[in-house]
Amino acid sequence: MFVPTFQLTHKRKYLTNYQQMSVQLGGVGSNYVYQDYDKPYYPHGNTKLVIINICSIGVFLLTKTYYVWRNKQKERVWNALTKEEQDEYLRTTKLRGSRRLDFRFAH
To answer: Per the confidence metrics, is the pTM higher than 0.70?
Structure first.
């Protein structure tokens, strides 16, 4: 199936912008982790970094849980279809990528 180059470039442009904004935000935030008043052992700065890491682990676990849940949900819908309905779906669906019922997230 033909996918216009404009659509792919358009998505890539926004993803690149979001990635750059994340890097910039990380740079701004990192300037406030270690402060002069916190020298020489930086207990407050180290506490901030530990909290950031714990939050990151939480985000990773929630993301993993979401992907497992999504796969189970799609599997349930897919298995509820008969073989003929599955074949019809594969032939006629206009959905692409992760929106398809036969797509499973790798996690």
So the answer is: no
